[in-house]
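Annex B. Sample input.
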Amino acid sequence: MVIIEICTKNDFKDPLGEQTLFSILESKIIDIKSVKYSPIYKLFDNNKLTNREINIISSELLTDNITEEYFINENINKYDTSINNFKSLIEVWYKHGVTDTVAESVVKAIDDLGIKKEIKVMRGDKYYLYGKISYSKLEYIATKLLVNTLIQDYKIII
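Annex B, continued. Sample output.
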């Protein structure tokens, strides 16, 4: 399995992160100071993809190379995690059996790139939340603002 995370470069705005922060603040939760958003992709390839192919998929298909950068199989510590900038994480994925049209499109696009290997893709979202906040408020943010619990699962990491 290969995990690819796409992050907005520091010099650029993160519109989905800003939109998420706005929604949180509208919900009267003032503990969050900023939000960073990253789409993530899991590629199930039975170790058939080469490093070159993984980099082609990441750079030519999944990433806008001007405003974004990608990380492959890394524990992302892209954003400041100092004690004064405490970070929590909410990760969101579609439940097993739910159609993920973006993932299906990625599979087709990989084939269009000339990579003719059997690959399964899952697409998810990561929300990095900055500020000291209780688990119960994170649970509220996840279930009321970020996740459709009928079709999506989530994980909170503090």
